Amino acid sequence: MTDFAPLFIADRQQLATILYTVTKSGFEAWLKDLPQRARTAVSVARFKGEVGSVVILPGDKIDEWNAAAGVSEDGSPWDLAAAAQKLPEGLYRLAAGRQPNEAALGWLLAQHRFDAYRSSPKPEPMRTLLTSDVAAIDETVALAGAVALVRELVDTPSADMGPAELQAAAEALAAAHDGTCRVTRGEALLKGFPMIHAVGRAAARHREPRLIEIEWGEPSHPRIAIVGKGVCFDSGGLDIKPASGMLLMKKDMGGAAHALALARLVMEMRLPVRLHMLVPAVENAISADAFRPGDVLKSRQGLHVEIGNTDAEGRLVLADALTLACEETPPALLIDFATLTGAARVALGPDLPALFANDDALAEDLLAAGRTVQDPMWRLPLWPAYNDMLKSDLADINNAGSGGFAGSITAALFLERFVAKGVAWAHLDTFAWSPAGKPGRPKGGEALGLRAAWAMLKERFGTVR
C-alpha cells in the first residue's frame, strides 16, 4: 500500500513551491496581483479557477516557479486532488499561510496506487504537502490509509480475496495494534453460526466459510460493535445471477472492507472504546451441497428462516454476526456495513449509502457527521408495515421480501430482527464502488460512509493519543 506519511508533513520553513488556491469567484482579484509573466501563463493555459484545473506560474528565473489550483467555493476534501495528480514532484506550501485542512485527504489519496497486477508498475512522483497544523497530520494520514485499505481489498480479484485472505487481513490488523483475532471456520460454525455455514458450505475447501472477530481496547471503556458483510464472491447461489450481475461481485465483501478499515482507525487513533469487530466471510458458490430455495435455516438467535432466494445471502450471514454482537455485554453502539441490495442503488445511485437506524439520535449523528466531512448518506425508513413482506407460510421469517417492492427496506427489516432490543443500531447499505473516476477517486473500490462513521465515533467517544 502507498505510504502516505511522506506526502503530508510539518512545515518547518523548507524550500517549497507556493501553491495558490483559486475559486472562480475570486479569480479576477487573484489575477490582478500577479506579475505580467504569470498573467500570461494563466491566459495561455486558459485557467479560470475551475475546480480541478492547474496552472504553472513562471518566475523571473527558469527554476523559480509557483502553481495555482482551482478549488470549490465551499471547500471540499477533493479540492487539491487534481493538483496532486498533475503537479511535478516536490514540496508544496499553500499561499498566504493557508492550511490544507480537509483537502489534505484528497492530496494523499490522489497519489494512492494499486499496482499489484501491473507487470511493470511505473514509479510515481512524490508530491509532498506542508502544513503548520501538525496536530492534523496523524489522523489525516490514518484516514487516507483506511480509505486506501477499502479500495485495495475491494479491487483485489476474488481469486485472491477469499475468506482466508480476509482472515489474514484481520489477523495482521489485530497484531499491528495489540488486538486479538478469533476465527470460527468450517464445520465449527454449525455449533453457533448455522446460517454463515449454510451460505458458505458450497465453496471449495480452501475457501470455507468463517466468522472473523477482532477484540481491542480496555474492558472498562464503552463497547462498540462493527460488523461487515464479507461475501467474497456472490454467484447468487442456485438462484444464479446472470453474467452481467456477477461482473462486479468481487466487491460483495465491501462491507467487510469498511469494517476492517473503521476498526483500523479506531485502533490506530486509540479511540477509548472496547472494540468488537465481526466479519462473516463466505463465498456464495454453487455445488451439490449448496443451500436451496425453500430450505429452512435455524439462525443463531433461534429464528427459523425460510429461503425465498439464495441470492439474498448477505442478510443471512449478517444475522448470525449481529446476534453475537449483541450477546453478553450489549454494545453501546452497533453499526454494520454491507453491499446488501441493488434496490438501494436504484433509489440512491452509487454515491449515497442508504442509512437505516433504530435510534434517531444515532441516525442524526451519522448524517451530521457525513455532512461535516462531505461523506454523505441518506436515511431510509425501517417501515414496520413492510414486515408483512417477509412473512413465511412455513417458518418464522422469509429471507426475501415478496412483491418486489422496497427491497432495501425489507432487507434492513430482516436484519433488525437480529438486533437485541435496546441496542442502538445503524445499517449502511453501501455500494463500495466508484463507477467513474474523478480526481482522487479512481474507478473501482471506494469507501462510502467510512469517513462519516469515523467522524461520528470521534464525536461520541473522543480520541486519546
Q: Can you characterise this structure?
A:
This protein has 465 residues and is an alpha/beta fold. The chain has two domains: 5-122, 3-Layer(aba) Sandwich (Leucine Aminopeptidase, subunit E, domain 1); 141-461, Aminopeptidase (3-Layer(aba) Sandwich), CATH 3.40.630.10. Helix content is 31%, strand content 20%. The chain is built from 14 helices and 20 strands. The strands form four sheets. Strands 7, 8, 9, 10, 11, 14, 15, 16 and 18 form a nine-stranded mixed sheet that branches. A six-stranded mixed sheet has the order 1-6-5-2-4-3. The radius of gyration is 24 Å and the shape is elongated. 48% of the residues are buried. The model has no long low-confidence stretch (mean pLDDT 97).
Distance between the termini: 24 Å
Overall mean pLDDT stands at 97
**CATH architecture title of the largest domain:** 3-Layer(aba) Sandwich
Radius of gyration: 24 Å
Query: Based on DSSP secondary structure assignment, what is the total number of beta strands?
Result: 20
Number of separate helices: 14
Please bin the fraction of helical residues. 25-40%
What summary fits the major beta sheet?
Answer: 9 strands, mixed
Morphology call: elongated
CATH class membership of the largest domain? Alpha Beta
